[in-house]
């Protein structure tokens, strides 16, 4: 079987596409296809309705469990304090929220904010089974229009979710708005592996194994092919840094994980 062509963006392509996206707001990318903003939003909703029940299992299988280490590292880099109020944007099944709650404690609060009820239902069931259930809330809402007041959170985080927001810059603007001055944002997202040989092996795994498992376990090979493509069309770390700075964030830092398969960005609202 021939491997589907892998179209990783280079730095120039990414910067040009970022500039295009911000000047032409009517379209975005769904995998390799250019689609309307509304079409992407509808697809993302259908996708997560379909995968919600097996979402945590698939994450663990596809990453060989490494995603748990990535998330621990990401929350640690957010440098939370006891008593902080934290918003977990596109928080889904609540993995990051549970880790954040361990730091902020009973005097703090973590709110999982996600547009998909099916994902939230899975997360609420998981969280309510432990002592943290009283201190983690779940709210259904759109990341492009966050339903909380200005300057009402000490920190905001988004893990593997901003890629699915049609207007990413608008999502970041909303996170900036709800943060207090000095508040911190953390974004954990997939990226382009740095070593060419590792990237080739990752492509083989991505285009063959990931969709196969998606078909067997979730019943949707197509959904996981779109996942593979969306990762390759996502902005590179330098472009995401530029987007955060354009929104108004400062002190942007990045950290590569597992040869750049995932990258953590942090930034501060000044």
Keywords summarizing the entry:
270 residues; alpha/beta; Rossmann fold; two-stranded antiparallel sheet
Would you write up a description of this structure?
The protein has a single domain, classed as Vaccinia Virus protein VP39 (Rossmann fold), CATH 3.40.50. The chain contains ten helices and nine strands. The strands form two sheets. A seven-stranded mixed beta sheet has the order 5-4-3-6-7-9-8, with helices on both faces. Strands 1-2 form a two-stranded antiparallel sheet. Helix 6 links the parallel strand 4 and strand 5. The protein is globular and about 45 Å long. The mean pLDDT is 90.
CATH fold descriptor: Rossmann fold
Structural class: alpha/beta
Outline: globular
Strand percentage lies at: 15-25%
Q: Helix coverage percent of residues?
A: 40-55%
Overall residue-averaged pLDDT value: 90
CATH class: Alpha Beta
Q: Order the strands across the largest sheet as they lie in space.
A: 5-4-3-6-7-9-8
Terminal-residue CA separation: 52 Å
Brief description of this entry?
The protein is α/β, with parallel strands linked by helices and about 270 residues long. It is built from ten helices and nine strands.
């Amino acid at each position: 079987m021939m491997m589907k062509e892998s179209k990783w963006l280079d730095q120039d392509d990414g910067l040009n596409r970022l500039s295009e996206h911000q000047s032409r707001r009517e379209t975005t990318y769904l995998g390799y296809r250019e689609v309307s903003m509304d079409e992407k939003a509808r697809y993302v909703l259908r996708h997560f309705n379909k995968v919600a029940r097996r979402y945590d299992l698939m994450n663990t299988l596809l990453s060989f469990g490494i995603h748990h280490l990535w998330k621990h590292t990401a929350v640690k880099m957010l440098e939370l304090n006891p008593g902080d109020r934290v918003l977990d944007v596109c928080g889904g099944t609540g993995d990051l929220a549970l880790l954040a709650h361990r730091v902020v404690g009973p005097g703090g609060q973590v709110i999982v904010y996600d547009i998909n009820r099916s994902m939230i239902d899975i997360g609420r069931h998981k969280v309510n089974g432990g002592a943290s259930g009283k201190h983690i809330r779940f709210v259904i809402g759109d990341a492009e229009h966050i339903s909380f007041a200005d300057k009402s959170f000490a920190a905001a985080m988004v893990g593997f979710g901003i890629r699915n927001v049609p207007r990413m810059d608008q999502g970041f603007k909303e996170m900036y708005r709800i943060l207090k001055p000095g508040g911190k944002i953390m974004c954990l997202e997939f990226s382009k592996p740095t070593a060419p040989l590792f990237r080739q092996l990752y492509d083989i795994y991505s285009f063959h194994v990931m969709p196969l498992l998606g078909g067997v376990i979730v019943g949707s090979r197509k959904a996981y092919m779109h996942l593979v493509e969306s990762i390759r069309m996502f902005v590179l770390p330098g472009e995401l840094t530029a987007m955060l700075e354009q929104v108004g964030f400062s002190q942007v830092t990045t950290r590569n994980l597992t040869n750049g398969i995932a990258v953590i960005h942090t930034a501060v609202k000044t």
